[in-house]
# Entry
Amino acid sequence: MPKFLIERNIPNASALSASQLRDISVKSNAVVSGLDVPYVWHNSYVAGDKVYCVHEAPDAETIYRHAKEGGFPADLVTEIVAEIGPSTGA
# Structure
């Protein structure tokens, strides 16, 4: 299943409280369970005014559907075509 990087522009995202982040996670999980298609949320990174997420879904349209149903922005959705890290250079 394709993996996607999602960029969400959320002003003051880095100021969101642990409770607010939990609420966002609860909402995202609820939307995922209602999509009726394979979907995996791997993780998200909060940095400045953005949240970067890594999700697996059948296609980008499903990523946008998740965002719309959850009330989350999905300003950029890009399919991940390769992963590299320290072990790639070994």
